[in-house]
Design brief:
Blueprint lengths: L8 E3 L2 H9 L6 E3 L25 H6 L4 E4 L8 H7 L3 E4 L7 H13 L2 H24 L3 E2 L3 E3 L4 E2 L5 H8 L2 E2 L11
Parallel strand pairs: 1-2, 1-3, 3-4, 5-8
Antiparallel strand pairs: 6-7
Length: about 180
């Protein structure tokens, strides 16, 4: 069994970089993307390997990762041969709902031996999900349009993680199927 000090993690997903630090694995994070900026106080000491879809293969390989954190929404499947060439283990997650994070916490606990902190995060998430359900059932539904990009204007789909999070607290998204004009 590997000890926590044996892990060399490259995170290609900002939220998973944050999760590593929440689970006490910050010392094992040896690489990140340009978009992994949190927790801010730790990022200057961790080399970037480029963007989530534009990884610098040499910088990546030179870091000699044992594990690489990836997500289909963030990363191209072209990264898999690079991970394999480094003999690293890809840790692929694809949460679609807030509840899916419970399985991610468990996966990290099993992989990186951080059971206590993962159990604590699971307990906190379950409490937050109960609170969200109570909020949703006690308030009227609200239609929202969360804008996530400009030029062109873009929003999230109801079938995304963000859409699922909004739904968890009683917010719905319009289903226009149209682009918004640029002004």
């Amino acid at each position: 069994m590997s000890s926590a000090s044996d892990f060399r993690i490259i995170s290609l997903v900002p939220s998973l970089t944050d999760l590593c630090f929440s689970l006490g694995l910050g010392h094992a994070v040896i690489g990140r993307t340009d978009y992994c900026i949190s927790p801010a106080e730790h990022m200057p000491g961790i080399p970037s390997v480029g963007g989530p879809k534009t990884v610098d293969a040499k910088r990546f390989s030179d870091l000699k990762p044992t594990h690489v954190l990836i997500c289909p929404e963030e990363n191209s499947k072209d990264i898999l041969p690079l991970i394999k060439s480094c003999n690293a283990v890809p840790i692929l997650v694809h949460p679609k709902t807030p509840e899916d994070n419970l399985a991610i916490f468990d996966l990290f606990a099993q992989t990186f031996h951080c059971h206590d902190k993962a159990n604590e995060l699971s307990k906190n998430l379950k409490a937050a999900l109960t609170l969200a359900q109570n909020m949703k059932s006690s308030t009227p539904s609200l239609c929202v349009l969360p804008l996530i990009w400009k030029e062109p204007w873009m929003t999230v789909s109801a079938r995304t993680y963000a859409g699922s999070m909004l739904d968890a607290v009683g917010m719905t998204l319009p289903h226009t199927g149209r682009s918004l004009p640029n002004h």
